[in-house]
Write a structure and sequence with these properties.
single chain, alpha/beta, Rossmann fold, Ubiquitin-like (UB roll), de novo design (two linked rop proteins), 3 domains, 5-stranded mixed sheet, about 15% strand, binds flavin mononucleotide, binds iron/sulfur cluster
Length: about 450
């Protein structure tokens, strides 16, 4: 049985009830940290653990915490990013639903380490049922003395507030999130300054993902060293993977980092293989923003080594032959799926979600969407493939926030690995899905 840190006990009892959670050792890290450890001591353990941010970028959590401006006499904030809007990613909602107190416990010990007396959870607005679960869990934690003033008779105070978003993917980007939390339009900020110095209301702020923070209680209880022993190399600990697409067992799995991709896809413990006995065609291993990999590069790297579920192995080969672990949204495509249609669908999403501040992203995502639409619907030309390549190149690295890159990478990878599918759509327009609509400039014409 693989190590369970985040989903341990979830099938045994209703962990939404604090008494059930306490019965399996819940909130022990709060008592341990507040009674026996200094805030810096907690931070040291998180550094030692090698825990990396689970929101997508994989930045080391302890290092991020150490950037927090400690000399400032302004209040410090911990903001938890529970926006989870990346297509294919649905692991944070599972964790918050089935183990809400572990999440709250993580917020408490992390806030203590950072010296924050206020913590905000910015949660995706569509997760309304989760807001109710979390509000109930927070009320129970207050009743038991884990939240509020003088927690467990210490001199440490903490309040947690849940703040629902209004349905914008861009508000998952940490600085857009802070703008939105301040009541403004969710436009990403230009960095530097980084939130650790100028964050929420101009104060030092750490923004972390739900899963990152929920990993902290185990680290406090067992030590950073013990956590660093799980996983491989710089990919330490466990990771939640939300698996979907043409697989027999879609769902959320907690894996030890270092598991082979082949085992993850084919073993009955995880995805259970490809549905209806079909062949594997492609995989997007880390949410819609990361490059798609063709079947021959999913389970093996270009060097012929086993591909592992780690930050390093999934990226092996760079973008030429690799991808990214990202947020852990693992999307599997069987042989019948159309890569052009999927790329158009993802690009439509990024165009819709672009905040519009930078022209390469605002104009480029819309342009790519239209060109992809034309190809998919049988109105494309061979030049369109080069045009798409050119547009994505001009977006990547030229924008305020990574949404631009997130829109460019899937297009680049689809052309790199599946150019023949684009060409097939162009040379076989009669086979296209619905060949009666075409974009000319900004106008959608019906033939
Ligand atoms: C467009 C966009 C959307 C994002 N959405 C999320 C999200 O829903 N949840 C999340 O944790 N991080 C998201 N991120 C990453 C955050 O900006 C940030 O890196 C993360 O919350 C930091 O937490 P971590 O270090 O614990 O991973 C997004 C980034 C971008 C550019
Ligand atoms: S890259 Fe796109 S989403 Fe990000 S700031 Fe620029 S326009 Fe807005």
């Amino acid at each position: 049985m693989p190590k369970q840190i985040l989903l341990a006990n979830i099938h045994q009892s209703n962990l939404q009830q604090i008494d059930n959670y306490l019965a399996v050792g819940g909130y022990e890290s709060v008592s341990k940290a507040l009674k026996t450890m200094s805030p810096d001591g907690v931070m040291e353990e998180v550094k030692k653990s090698g825990l990396r941010g689970r929101g997508g970028a994989g930045f080391p959590t302890g290092l991020k915490w150490s950037f927090l401006d400690r000399k400032s006499n302004k209040p410090r904030y911990l903001v938890c990013n529970a926006d989870e809007s990346e297509p294919g990613t649905f692991k944070d909602r599972y964790l918050m639903e089935y183990n809400p107190h572990l999440f709250i416990e993580g917020l408490i010990v992390s806030s203590y380490a950072l010296g924050a007396n206020t913590c905000y959870v910015y949660i995706r607005g569509e997760y309304w049922y989760l807001i109710e679960i979390l509000e109930r869990a927070i009320a129970q934690a207050h009743q038991k003395g884990f939240l509020g003033k003088n927690i467990l008779q210490s001199d440490y105070d903490l309040q947690i507030y849940i703040h629902p978003g209004a349905g914008a993917y861009i508000c998952g980007e940490e600085t857009a999130l802070l703008e939105s939390l301040e009541g403004k339009r969710g436009n990403p900020r230009i960095k530097p300054p980084f939130p650790a110095v100028v964050g929420l209301y101009g104060c030092p702020t750490v923004v972390n993902n739900v899963e990152s923070l929920a990993s902290v209680p185990w680290i406090v209880n067992n030590g950073g060293e013990a956590y660093s022993q799980i996983g491989i190399g710089r990919s330490t600990g466990t990771k939640l993977i939300s698996a979907c697409g043409n697989i027999n067992r879609p769902g959320v799995y907690e894996i030890e980092l270092g598991l082979s991709v082949e085992k993850f896809i084919y073993s009955d413990e995880y995805c259970g293989g490809i549905k209806n006995g079909k062949k594997l065609k492609a995989c997007v291993p880390g949410g819609s923003s990361v490059p798609i990999l063709p079947a021959n590069l999913i389970c093996k790297t270009a060097k012929g080594e086993d591909r592992l579920m780690t930050y390093e192995s999934l990226a092996d080969g760079g973008f030429a032959t690799g991808s990214m672990l990202g947020s852990g949204g693992f999307i599997v495509f069987d042989e019948d799926q159309c890569v052009v249609r999927n790329t158009w669908n993802f690009t439509r999403f990024y165009h819709h979600e672009s905040c519009g501040q930078c022209s390469p992203c605002r104009e480029g995502t819309g342009w790519m969407e239209k060109v992809l639409h034309n190809i998919e619907y049988g109105h494309g030309s061979m030049d369109d493939i080069d045009l798409l390549w050119d547009i994505q190149r001009k977006i990547e690295g030229n924008t305020i926030c990574p949404l631009g890159d997130a829109a460019a990478w899937p297009v680049a990878a689809a052309i790199r690995h599946f150019r023949h599918e684009f060409e097939w759509h162009i040379t076989n327009p009669q086979e296209a899905t619905r060949p009666n609509a075409v974009y000319r400039g900004n106008q959608l014409l019906l033939a």
